[in-house]
Amino acid sequence: MAMEGGIEVSDFECIDGPWPDDDITALVAPNRIVFNPSLEDDDLRADVLAFAAALCCSLVLSDSAPAGHVAAPGGLVLIGREKLPEPPTGPGRLAGMFARRCGKDTTSATFKIYIP
Question: For residue 39, what pLDDT is reported?
Fold first, then answer.
């Protein structure tokens, strides 16, 4: 799904520097998702991938964003480990739809995000 959307997905080993924090599952930038190297739970990883792909589709490189989008003035969003209920709109809703369309039985693929 990510490849079809032109999103590059990789593990952190291919980037220099330390991983930000063990509570961070992935880094998301326009058209790029980088996973925490310690994220070995395939079920969690699949939900994070769905959410990260939805974020890639909704990032706005600005201080503000329209409803249903995420403002990331620096072009980077960090995805935490804390799973949240699926919202009625926005990238969290899109992530749940992505996950279920790919055969995942999940009530939510939405996670807490941090904008550095």
Answer: 86
